[in-house]
Structure formats: structure tokens, C-alpha cells
Design a protein that fits this description.
The complex is a heterodimer.
Chain A: E1 6-13, H1 21-24, H2 44-47, E2 69-73, H3 86-94, E3 98-101, H4 106-113, E4 118-121, H5 124-136, E5 141-145, E6 150-152, E7 158-160, H6 165-173, H7 177-182, H8 185-194
Parallel strand pairs in A: 1-2, 2-3, 3-4
Antiparallel strand pairs in A: 1-5, 5-6, 6-7
Chain B: H1 6-13, E1 15-17, E2 24-27, E3 30-33, H2 39-48, E4 58-61, H3 78-94, E5 97-99, H4 109-116, E6 124-127, E7 141-144, H5 147-156, E8 158-161, E9 165-172, H6 181-192, E10 200-205, H7 207-210, H8 214-222, E11 231-233, H9 238-244, H10 254-261, E12 274-279, E13 286-288, E14 296-298, H11 312-325, E15 340-343, H12 345-348, H13 351-361, E16 371-374, H14 379-387, H15 390-396, E17 400-401, E18 422-425, E19 440-443, H16 446-455
Helix pairs in contact in B: 2-5, 6-8, 13-16
Classes of the chains: A alpha/beta, B alpha/beta.
């Protein structure tokens, strides 16, 4: 897995709650058997008009100032619904490295860490403040510094990054979960032996 | 030992390794696999030179992507076909049992696990599908995972997990006549919202739950993910044991198994992190009006007026949902006409659901303005329905009678809504475009969907005249 230590990027604000994974990557694109190439279909039904190719001029990612964004700001319960890991694959492939929201759905949140995307949760007041800043400052950027556990902007913002230490360790070092678990192969075998699993 | 909840007992029993400050390594008893979320996981195994550690604890089927029309015909979509072929090749290569397209027992993964008797009390069960929560109905800890985790389970038969908090949802008293498990769970999600369960494993308790059949309990646990919870579960009892006895993969020493399973229910005095108590008599048949499963209303009421909602985030979500759904505030929901009816899915595609539908439509005909289809949850459900003559009732009433699969619950196969169509659906998600781009989904119970098919609009099935 790609390591995540520090990322600075342009912010896109999506003033939406309950953005479900069906919106992030609609089902017609789940037939592919690869992990890559999903970015072109990200938010497909919102991003394109009915012809499937003309950018929807009202959609957040199609605004001129959203070119090159890599940090996404949203409201509550981002990533709800289906467990499809195609959702973080699509976000990652499009270029997103950091997601910031009031809350995330459980499976999606977990899937992000498996793909070196950093999901950050802040309270409603802080999220509102970030939305205001994103609107106020053209070309608004944030820096997520996972080494020093701090989220900053160029206008004096400084927020702590609160994240489970084990997950931080895995992100910082790009550790593969399966490799880590297999270090406990003896314990797994012992469990199986004790439970008559052979 | 201090009194423990059922969740804690199952969790404790499956801890392989735990260390302060790290995620717990949890043993997985049963891994369910389908065509959509597994190809990248198998590919990962291949690239790393790994095997499936416990193929006998892994079960695969095709469901999301399969056509529900004539199975003798070739699959029209080459990309769908490729995904189905890939699963077949992967299962052969890694030694995993596959219930393939032409297998008698093929079906939706959350329907066939229980009907084969693979789903059992006390187990840990995972699948690359959020509706894995269904299996909690048997007193199992069951939840959906992503594809990276699918690969992890294949390689290690374990998962890295943080322990969720516990939540008791107690339903006191009995459900009124005409009110179903689907109504109960939609009502519940309406109360807690789609994120209200985040971080919790929910245990449903109380008389209304105890009175439910296994099919009804599966409907409740299935929808638990729509409230954001990791898992839903219901303590096993005689209803559970009776359902499992005699099934193909039920334990050989069944009596001994039952004795073990009887130890699972939460101990008296066990503490939950959160408790909510509801009165079953308060539940009225539900219809979703919006674009998430928390946006629900009783059939007896009028569409919500966003102007009356104080919270700006909730108000904005309601406005956006009503705009997408093309609904006007103040309209009684029973005046809203429907174009399509979909009966099926892992939520409501079981034999008991189809019997409910047959009772409602017997002697009636689908409205000329409605296209209605019934998609059984599995090949076994289909055959059982045909043995009981339900297919005749459906076809005489004007329903299409299809082959088993996920079908229009998510519209990965050709079964989709066209833009603007309004559908009464027994499925689990009313997200924008879920059943087809521009399609408008209203979640209801099988009986409510059946009644809507006949009348061409939503009706209160409590007042239905059964023939």
C-alpha cells in the first residue's frame, strides 16, 4: 500500500449529507474485474448530464476552481450504503487523498484506510468553519500532516488529527494488513486447533 | 464472570489475538462470496502467491449481475458475462464451492446461506456485501466488508476489527394486523436515521421480535445496515432451531448444537451501551418518500414540508430528496401513483414474502398502468413457490415471474427503471438512481407493494379486502 505521511491539496466543498456509495460509483461500473480506472466514473450520475458525457455545469467537481482538487469536504454520513470498495478506488483514482466530514459510514471509513485515503472526522461547528473558509478563500488548500497529527491551512487554521494510532502507523508506513496478520499465523493455527478446525 | 451480551459472547469466542492499541484479530467462521466484490481479491491472492486458507468455510454464488430472464439464453452483456466467468475460474482455481448460474440452489447470497443451513447461531459471518447483516437473525455476528478485507479473510480466515459498541433495540408488545417486519425496521431507521447506528452492533429484543418468523427476523437484520450499524442480531430460540433442523448443512449432532446455541442469548443484567425502547403498536405500514431509508412515513400521512424542518442540514436533504422524487409537500402518500412494482431482494425475496404477496393479489389483477415483477431470492424459493402454486396466482394477476437474483434492487442486470419511473419496491435502498438513473424508489413491505401493484397507487394494506 502507498504510504501516507503528509498531503497538501486543493479543497472541494460538497454541501451534502448522506452521500452514498451508489452516488460515488454507480452500479453499472461495478462489473469491471480490475481495481483501477474507476476515476472516470466517479459521481457519474451527478457529474454528467443524461447523455453520460457532457459535464453537468452545476456539479461541484465541474467548477473551474475544482480542477486538481485532492481534498473533499462533506457533511454527515459520507459513504453510506453499499460496501463496494470501488467507491474509495474511484475517489483515489480521481486524485482524492483526504476526505473530511462530520461523519462517515462504517464500512466506507474502513475501506479508505485500505487504500491510503485519510478520512477525517470533525464536529459540526468545525466542519461549518471549513466550509466557510473554502468559500472565502479562492484556491483554498489544506495540509494534512499525519506525522505531526495536524490539519492546517495558510490562514491560521490548526486542527488536531485524531486517528487511531494503529491505523496511523499503517498509513505512515504503507503497511499491508494481510502481511501484518500473517505475522500471527501461529496464533491463527492455535485457534483453529483449539476449535477443532482442520 | 460479569453478565455478557450475546454480541460479547460471540466476540470473545472468536478472538484470535488482541493487544492493547491494536485491532483485534477475529476468526471468521463463514465467508460468503459473490461475483462483484471478489475478483480483485482473488487477483490479490494470485499476485502474492497466497491460497484461500479455508475453502470449506467459503461459499460462492452469482447474484448481483445475473439475468432473471430465460437462463437458457446466453448472457447479453459481455462485461457481466466476464465477471461471472471470472468467479467460476477463481472458484475452480482456489477450490471454493460455487452455486453457479445453472445450479438448482443458486440465489442471492443472503438467501441461500440460511436456506442451506450454512448460517448458524454463534458464528462470525462476513461477505463483501453490506447486507450481510441479514445473517444476524440467527444469533450470528454478521457484517459486510470491502474487497481488501475479502482478500484478508481469504488469506487468513480472520479480520482485523475494532470492537463495536452494543445497542439494544427493544420492541414491546405485538405488531398490529397488517403491519410487518419491514414496516418495523423502516420505522426504526426513521427514528434513529441512517447514521444513528454507526459504531454499534444492534440486538433486537422484545415480544414483537420474539413473535417473528425467521424470514421476518432476516428482514429486520438485513435492513440494519441502513441505520448505519455494523451488524444486527436476534437471539436464537426455538423458532431458529426449528428453521435450521434438517437443512443440508445443519450440524450432524443437532441436539448438541442446540444445547450450545442456547447459551448464546444475552445474560440477565447484561449491559448495553445504548438502549432504545419502542412500542410495536405505534408502527404503521411505512412508505419511504425520500432518497435514503431514513426518509420514511406512515401510509396514513402527508408528504413532509421541508419548510417545517428546523435543522438546516435535514431541511436541505429533504428539499433535495423531494425534488428528485418529484413529490409535493402536503400530498397524502396514498394519492401517489406508481409505474412499477418490484418484489424480491435479500430483504424480501423469501418464500414467506411471496406467500404474503399471493394473499394480497389472489383474485385481483395488476393495474393496467403498472408493470410488476416478482424475482424470487433463490432457485429453492422459486421451486417452493411453484410447488405451492403461487406462480400461477402471480401470473394470472399479471406479474412477471422471474429467475433468482438481486435484479432491480440495484439494477446491475438489465432489470432497471427508466428515468422518471416511480417504483414501489420491497428492496432496501431508495438512493438516487439505485434502480436505474432517474428512477424513483419507494421502499415498502411485500404486502404494500402487492397492493400498490393492484391499485396503481400506494394504499393502506390494513384496509385491504382479501379475496
Amino acid at each position: 500500500m502507498r504510504a501516507f505521511q503528509k498531503h497538501t491539496g486543493l479543497v472541494v466543498a460538497m454541501d451534502r449529507s448522506n452521500v452514498d456509495t451508489d452516488q460515488i460509483i454507480p452500479k453499472q461500473f461495478l462489473k469491471r474485474i480490475e481495481r483501477t480506472g474507476f476515476g472516470q466514473f466517479l459521481f457519474y450520475d451527478w457529474r454528467f448530464l443524461d447523455d453520460g458525457s457532457t459535464p453537468n455545469p452545476d456539479f461541484e467537481l465541474n467548477q473551474p476552481e475544482a480542477k486538481g482538487v485532492s481534498i473533499l469536504l462533506a457533511k454527515e454520513n459520507f459513504g453510506s450504503g453499499s460496501s463496494r470498495e470501488h467507491a474509495p478506488w474511484a475517489l483515489d483514482d480521481y486524485g482524492f487523498r483526504v476526505l473530511i466530514a462530520r461523519s462517515f459510514a462504517d464500512i466506507f471509513f474502513n475501506n479508505c484506510f485500505k487504500n491510503s485515503i485519510l478520512p477525517l472526522v470533525y464536529d459540526a461547528k468545525t466542519i461549518d468553519d471549513l466550509f466557510e473558509r473554502a468559500e472565502k478563500y479562492p484556491g483554498y488548500q489544506l495540509t494534512a500532516d499525519l506525522v505531526n497529527k495536524v490539519l492546517t491551512d495558510e490562514h491560521g487554521l490548526e486542527l488536531p488529527i485524531e486517528i487511531e494510532e494503529f491505523r496511523r502507523h499503517c498509513l505512515l508506513n504503507g503497511l499491508d494488513d494481510i502481511g501484518l496478520t500473517l505475522q500471527r499465523d501461529a496464533e491463527i493455527s492455535a485457534y483453529e486447533a483449539a476449535h477443532g478446525i482442520s | 464472570m460479569a453478565p455478557r451480551t450475546m454480541f460479547e459472547k460471540i466476540w470473545d469466542e472468536h478472538v484470535v489475538y488482541s493487544e492493547e492499541g491494536k485491532q483485534t484479530i477475529l476468526y471468521i467462521d463463514l465467508h460468503l462470496v459473490h461475483e462483484v466484490t471478489s475478483p480483485q481479491a482473488f487477483e490479490g491472492l494470485r499476485l502474492a502467491g497466497r491460497k484461500v486458507r479455508r475453502p470449506e468455510r467459503t461459499l460462492a454464488t452469482v447474484d448481483h449481475n445475473v439475468p432473471t430472464t430465460d437462463r437458457a439464453l446466453p448472457i447479453a452483456d459481455p462485461i457481466s458475462k466476464k465477471q461471472l466467468d471470472t468467479l467460476r475460474e477463481n472458484c475452480e482455481e482456489f477450490g471454493v464451492k460455487l452455486y453457479d448460474l445453472h445450479h438448482r440452489k443458486q440465489g442471492i447470497v443472503h438467501v441461500i446461506g440460511p436456506e442451506l443451513g450454512r448460517t448458524q447461531p454463534g458464528m462470525t459471518i462476513v461477505c463483501g456485501d453490506s447486507h450481510t447483516s441479514t445473517h444476524g437473525a440467527f444469533g450470528a455476528l454478521a457484517f459486510g466488508i470491502g474487497t481488501s478485507e475479502v482478500e484478508h479473510v481469504m488469506a487468513t480466515q480472520t479480520l482485523l476489527q475494532n470492537k463495536p459498541k452494543t445497542f439494544e433495540a427493544r420492541f414491546e408488545g405485538s405488531l398490529p394486523n397488517g403491519v410487518t417486519a419491514k414496516d418495523l425496521v423502516l420505522y426504526f431507521i426513521g427514528q434513529i436515521t441512517t447514521s444513528g447506528g454507526t459504531g454499534y452492533c444492534i440486538e433486537y429484543t422484545g415480544e414483537a421480535i420474539r413473535n417473528m418468523t425467521m424470514e421476518e427476523r432476516m428482514t429486520v437484520c438485513n435492513m440494519t445496515i441502513e441505520g448505519g450499524a455494523r451488524a444486527g442480531m436476534i437471539a436464537p430460540d426455538q423458532t431458529t432451531f426449528d428453521y435450521l433442523e434438517g437443512r443440508e448443512f445443519a450440524p450432524q449432532d443437532f441436539e448438541a448444537a442446540v444445547e450450545r446455541w442456547k447459551q448464546l442469548p444475552s445474560d440477565p443484567g447484561a449491559k448495553y451501551d445504548r438502549v432504545e425502547v419502542y412500542q410495536a403498536k405505534d408502527v404503521i405500514p411505512q412508505v419511504s418518500w425520500g432518497t435514503n431509508p431514513g426518509q420514511v412515513m406512515p401510509i396514513s400521512e402527508k408528504i413532509v414540508d421541508p419548510a417545517q424542518i428546523e435543522d438546516p442540514v435535514i431541511r436541505k436533504a429533504a428539499e433535495s430528496a423531494l425534488s428528485y422524487m418529484d413529490l409535493k409537500p402536503g400530498t397524502p402518500i396514498c394519492e401517489v401513483p406508481v409505474d412499477r412494482v418490484f418484489i424480491g431482494s435479500c430483504t424480501n425475496g423469501r418464500i414467506a414474502d411471496l406467500r404474503e404477496v399471493a394473499k394480497v393479489v389472489q383474485g385481483y389483477h395488476v393495474s393496467p398502468s403498472v408493470n410488476a415483477m416478482i424475482v424470487p431470492g433463490s432457485g429453492q424459493v422459486k421451486r417452493q413457490a411453484e410447488e405451492e402454486g403461487l406462480d400461477k396466482i402471480f401470473q394470472q394477476a399479471g406479474f412477471e415471474w422471474r429467475e433468482a437474483g438481486c435484479s432491480m434492487c440495484l439494477g446491475m442486470n438489465p432489470d432497471i427503471l427508466t428515468p422518471g419511473q416511480r417504483c414501489a419496491s420491497t428492496s432496501n435502498r431508495n438512493f438516487e438512481g439505485r434502480q436505474g438513473k432517474g428512477g424513483r424508489t419507494h421502499l415498502v413491505s411485500p404486502a404494500m407493494a402487492a397492493a400498490a401493484a393492484v391499485t396503481g397507487r400506494f394504499v393502506d394494506v390494513r384496509e385491504w379486502e382479501y379475496k
